[in-house]
Automatic annotation (TrEMBL):
Domain FAD-binding span(s) in chain numbering: 4-336
Cofactor: FAD
SUPFAM superfamilies attached to this UniProt entry: FAD/NAD(P)-binding domain
Source species taxonomy: Bacteria, Bacillati, Actinomycetota, Actinomycetes, Glycomycetales
Pfam family, one: Rng_hyd_C
Protein name: FAD-dependent monooxygenase
InterPro entries the record matches: FAD-bd, FAD/NAD-bd_sf, RIFMO-like
PANTHER family linked: BINDING MONOOXYGENASE, PUTATIVE (JCVI)-RELATED, TRK SYSTEM POTASSIUM UPTAKE PROTEIN
Keyword annotations from UniProtKB, A to Z: FAD, Flavoprotein, Monooxygenase, Oxidoreductase
Length: 488
């Protein structure tokens, strides 16, 4: 007999761990598996964008990261061209420089036990369940779940097993990343976290991680011919750095290295029956501007509470379709902006001219605000089609209303803020909804996005509650109790 669970999360990277942490907070049982023997401790990503910082903070999960923060960078960047984040209306108008491994540790502590060395090898699903074959240290096993989250990264086994297409553009540019120690540093190397520097031969990103370790990103002709799994050697890094910094640099040792590309792909549907795709399993792109981990985290915050509501029986399964509707366009947009950033980095005799013109344009406030809002994740708006004028439905909760919502968001519960008479409308959802006094009416989802605001009209409130929280409680005259439709 296969082991049973409500949700199986495949992949314990930042995306899978964040979904599992959200499910744990909502009291929904989940099993998390990962093919690796243990956490790698390696960090591809090195920064949190403002919206991700807000989300982690809303759960109290930013606080444990504080001792590990290297810097708060007032600038984001677009292909290395600075974006001024001080114009963003957020309590975190900066990138938070912190390693992916530290973020994963914090999430794992909240996600429950991860089953390492458990590799998903096959997936089949029926109308009622999804069955996942798992290779474990004790031999083959099967786990049956009501839902599975495919968070198994760019080369997703779940995606392949289900035959889900991954359309997009193949790699044109192959790059390498390595954490190295240096025997000799290039003159004038800034010992601070900063966006990459460019020369006409492309870029050779050299960033101090502390304790004498430097992050190097590079990509020249040599890297184009390498297989993805080929180790990154010290000699290769040396040549990569010399191409940009000249011979004034000497690599001592490579601590860790990996290869990546500018392939740009996205699954067409994030939901395939009982399987939900999230993070790199759903979308890949050049890691430009520091957006991939952030996209995955935000997928997880969008999906987690919806999956919990469906698994608990509070909401209909169709709520899961809104995960696709809301998150697919956000990643599509990131694929566009990272492809544009790719063009701003590909070695070309006219690269510096292109960057100069683009940099001048970005110095203008409108262009800066537009791209800063996009790369930071602050300007995301869900489902705006139906929102009336002056409505802020679909936007994130403004910081000005945060105090009213904070206790609910810490517990990942929705909250209705507003004058007392709104409570009467919301009473049939009181088993799942918090209320808080405030002047402006707003219904805040557990992921901090607004599901209803005053300008939508009070008649729209019950509709929004039904749409996002599921069927209202109904009085059962026989037993004198109240039940939701799904529990009846
Ligand atoms: C050089 C580089 C720099 C980057 N810098 C940034 C940055 O600054 N900011 C940013 O936001 N993003 C950045 N990214 C992107 C970011 O690292 C990824 O988007 C992020 O790791 C995606 O997280 P994930 O959890 O979706 O997938 P992953 O981190 O890939 O995790 C997937 C997990 O699934 C597991 N797995 C795989 N197959 C199976 C299987 N069959 N069964 C079970 N488990 C399996 C893997 O072992 C892994 O632990 C960068 C990427 C690169 C390459």
């Amino acid at each position: 007999m296969p082991e049973q669970t409500d949700v199986l999360v495949v992949g314990a990277g930042p995306t899978g761990l964040a979904v599992a942490a959200e499910l744990a907070l909502a009291g929904v049982g989940a099993i998390v598996i990962d093919a690796l023997p243990e956490r790698s401790g390696q960090s591809k990503a090195l920064a949190l964008q403002p919206r991700s910082a807000e989300l982690l903070d809303s759960r109290g999960w930013l606080e444990p990261l504080r001792p590990h923060i290297h810097a708060r960078l007032a600038e984001g960047h677009f292909a290395g061209l600075p974006l001024d984040y001080s114009v963003l209306e957020t309590r975190f108008p900066h990138q938070i420089a912190v390693e992916q491994a530290r973020i994963e540790e914090v999430l794992e502590a909240r996600a429950g036990r991860v089953r390492w060395a458990h590799a998903c090898t096959a997936v089949r699903q029926s109308a009622d369940e999804v069955a996942v074959a798992v290779e474990t240290p004790a031999g083959p096993a099967e786990i049956a779940a009501r839902f599975a989250v495919a968070a198994d990264g760019a080369h997703s086994t779940v995606r392949r097993a289900l035959g889900v297409p991954f359309p997009g553009r193949a790699a044109r540019m192959r790059l390498a990343v390595a954490d190295v120690t240096l025997a000799r540093k290039p003159t004038g190397l800034a010992e601070a976290w900063a966006p990459p520097e460019f020369g006409s031969g492309g870029f050779g990103y050299l960033l101090p991680l502390g304790a004498g370790v430097y992050r190097v990103l590079f990509g020249g002709e040599e890297q184009q011919a390498k297989e993805r799994t080929e180790p990154v050697t010290a000699a290769e890094v040396q040549r990569g750095l010399e191409a940009v910094h000249g011979d004034g640099v000497e690599v001592a040792a490579v601590r860790w290295g990996s290869r990546f590309s500018d392939a740009s792909r996205q699954v067409e549907r994030y939901r395939h029956g009982r399987v939900l795709f999230a993070g790199d399993a759903a979308h890949i792109h050049l890691p430009a501007g520091g957006q991939g981990l952030n996209l995955g985290l935000q997928d997880a915050f969008n999906l987690g509470w919806k999956l919990a509501a469906v698994a608990r029986g509070d909401a209909e399964e169709s709520l899961l379709d809104t995960y696709h509707d809301e998150r697919h366009p956000v990643a599509s947009r990131v694929l566009v902006n990272t492809r544009a950033q790719g063009v701003l980095t590909i070695p070309d005799p006219d690269l510096l001219a292109l960057r100069e013109v683009f940099g001048d344009l970005l110095a203008g406030p409108a262009a800066n605000r537009r791209l800063a809002g996009e790369v930071s994740g602050i300007d995301i708006r869900n489902g705006i089609a139906a929102a009336p004028p002056r409505s802020s439905t679909g936007l994130r909760l403004p910081d000005t209303a945060l105090d009213c919502a904070r206790p609910s968001l810490l517990a990942a519960r929705p909250v209705l803020i507003g004058p007392p008479h709104l409570e009467a409308i919301a009473r049939p959802w009181r088993d799942r909804l918090d209320t808080a006094a405030g002047n402006a009416g707003m219904l805040v989802r557990p992921d901090g996005y607004l599901a209803w605001t005053d300008p939508d009209g009070e008649q729209g409130l019950a509709r929004a509650l039904g749409r996002w929280l599921g069927a209202p409680l109904q009085h059962d005259a026989n037993t004198g109790t109240e039940r939701t439709r799904d529990h009846a």
